[in-house]
Amino acid sequence: MRAILVSTGDPAAAQIIKASFRGEYKVDTALNRETCASLFARSRYDFLFIDLEFLEPGEDASSGRPNYGQALQRYWQVMPNVEIVVMGPQDRIRDAVMAVKAGASNYITYPIHADELRFMTDSIYQASLMQSELNYLRDRFWHVDSLEVVKTKSPAMMKVFEKVRSVAPTKTNVLITGETGTGKGMLAKLIHRHSNRANAQFITVHCGAIPDSLIESELFGHEKGAFTGADRRKLGKFEISNKGTIFLDEIGTITPSAQIKLLQVLQDRTFQRVGGEVTIEADVRVIVATNSDLKAMSDGGLFRKDLYYRLCVFPIEVPPLRERKEDVPHLAEYFLKDLNKMYSKGIFKIDPRVLEAFELYNWPGNIRELENLMERAYILENSAMLTPDGFPGEIFAGEGKAVLPQVDVSLPISTVRRKAVEAVEIAYLKSLLSKQTGRMSKSALAAGITTRQLHKLLTKYGIRKEDFK
After folding, report:
1. Does 296 score more than 70 pLDDT?
2. pLDDT digits (tens, 9 = 90+) for 55-102
3. Closest by alpha carbon to 55, among 73, 29, 41?
4. Is pLDDT of 148 > 80?
5. pLDDT for the residue numbered 469
6. What kind of fold does domain 2-137 have according to CATH?
7. Are the folds of 2-137 and 155-318 the same?
8. What average pLDDT does this structure show over 452-461?
9. Which sign does the torsion angle of CA 397, 403, 407, 408 carry?
10. What is the arrangement of strands in the sheet containing 25-30, beginning at the earlier edge strand?
11. Cα 122 to Cα 28: distance, rounded to the nearest angstrom
12. Could you tell me if 195 and 285 are in contact, meaning their C-beta atoms sit under 8 angstroms apart?
């Protein structure tokens, strides 16, 4: 039988929800957040109806608004597929909408009406079934070794992968844009891997790393004697990648003369080696990437407009990591698995304090920065878990901002004080368990309390000692 957990301080609302699903769902109720955390950790639920007051979002460091994504993430870390519906009074609809934007399935306001409740639940369930079927069909498209790469919780990245899925089987030129380190090269490989050229060459050329005087020779090859030092014929990257895919990274840096030759390849599918007269056919798929604004460059005369429009047949913009922070935990785990394959140190966990710091960090270097930081920490780490000691201090610079909850002046000072104490206790307990690698007796001794008292605190806040071992 499917199950629902109702967590609200309003007994009448809990009773209405329970009566609405009697015989259809097993419905558990929690009239306080401690009971909610305890029940949620012990049982599996299809739906969680939770009062906004019980979510306790921290403050987003950049916007100052409540961070409902972080609050919801606590539940999804325990049960990734649970559908979360937030509840609140009419005057808090704005907060409810923010929670939905952060990933909650829907919201409902007090007083609760049974008909509205059932309609909403059925709609969410049907949408969930359809999404599961779509995910199954998408997974059948992706090769097994690409499933971890395309796994995402970010709506923006879902759209990116949907575009990749659409364009990969075609011959269309692709322009990938985005900041440095966002994974443009990975997307290019993904497109090639799922195209009908997958068994042929995939050639990468970093245009920005090649001197202007050599770019044409590198791309199109040269004949013997074409210029000083050309003592033999050389095949260019377009010739080598015949029948396959060529990926031109930082395309905005190539010279005007190389732009003309590239335009010829895209228009006529032919080219000549430097110093040669023989016309060579180019059966190659072209994928280009840039972190520059090619449209602005073409408008300013720094890049050929005709070439820009030839390249921009199918543009894909990759969002920066700071706009898809919900993917950071998965990416960190992905890199950790790769590091274990390379170095076999047997480090399989990441300290929760590190993941919390990752949530607050702005990631100016994007995915590449995350990958490099993970490798650095892995090399330095001597325990079975990546701890804060292996990461640079700037990663934790914004951590203190998230310790205290947002101060709501509409609440009595006693409530604000209680919330602040709870936030500090949670941060203290997590740091303590991390330091003692989840050992209850040592943690209790260090905290100056009994093991029984420590266990009650962990249950109250939904903290699992297993996450720190």
Report:
1. yes
2. 877 776 556 677 888 788 888 888 887 899 999 998 889 889 988 888
3. 73
4. no
5. 67
6. Rossmann fold (3.40.50)
7. yes
8. 85
9. positive
10. 25-30, 2-7, 47-51, 83-88, 106-109
11. 19
12. yes
Q: Are 201 and 243 in contact (CB under 8 A)?
A: yes
pLDDT tens digit sequence for 360-389: 888 999 999 999 999 999 999 988 899 998
Most confident option among 352-361, 365-374, 391-400, 429-438: 365-374
Q: Which helix (H) or strand (E) holds 35?
A: helix 33-42
At 135, is the pLDDT very low, low, confident or very high (cuts 50, 70, 90)?
low
- Residue 85 φ/ψ, nearest 5 degrees: -115, 125
Q: Pairing mode, if any, of strands 270-271 and 280-281?
A: antiparallel
Grouping H, G, I as helix, E, B as strand and the rest as coil, residue 3 is strand
Domain borders along the chain are: 2-137, 155-318, 327-468
CB-based contact 345:377 (threshold 8 Å): no
When pLDDT is cut at 50, 70 and 90, the band that residue 130 belongs to is: low
**Residue ranges in 361-438 assigned as alpha helix (H):** 366-380, 413-435
**Domain spanning 327-468 has what CATH number?**
1.10.8.60
Euclidean distance between CA atoms 136 and 148, whole angstroms: 14
Question: How far is 429 from 412, CA to CA, in rounded Å?
Answer: 26
379's tokens: 């090399």
Tell me the three state secondary structure of residue 261.
Answer: helix
25-54 as b/e: b if 16+ CB within 10 A = bebbbbbebbbbbbbbeeeebbbbbbbbbb
* Residue reference for tokens 């330091």: 435
Do 88 and 52 touch, CB atoms closer than 8 A? yes
Contacts of residue 156, Cβ cutoff 8 Å, sequence gap at least 6: 319, 323, 324
Architecture of domain 155-318: 3-Layer(aba) Sandwich (3.40)
The Cβ of residue 259 has, within 10 Å, a number of other Cβ atoms equal to 18
CA distance linking residue 220 with residue 236, whole number of Å:
4
| Sign of the C-alpha dihedral computed for residues 230, 233, 235 and 236 taken in this order | positive
Tokens of 447: 């905290």
Backbone angles phi, psi at 126, to 5 degrees: -65, -40
**What confidence category does residue 341 fall into, taking pLDDT thresholds of 50, 70 and 90?**
confident
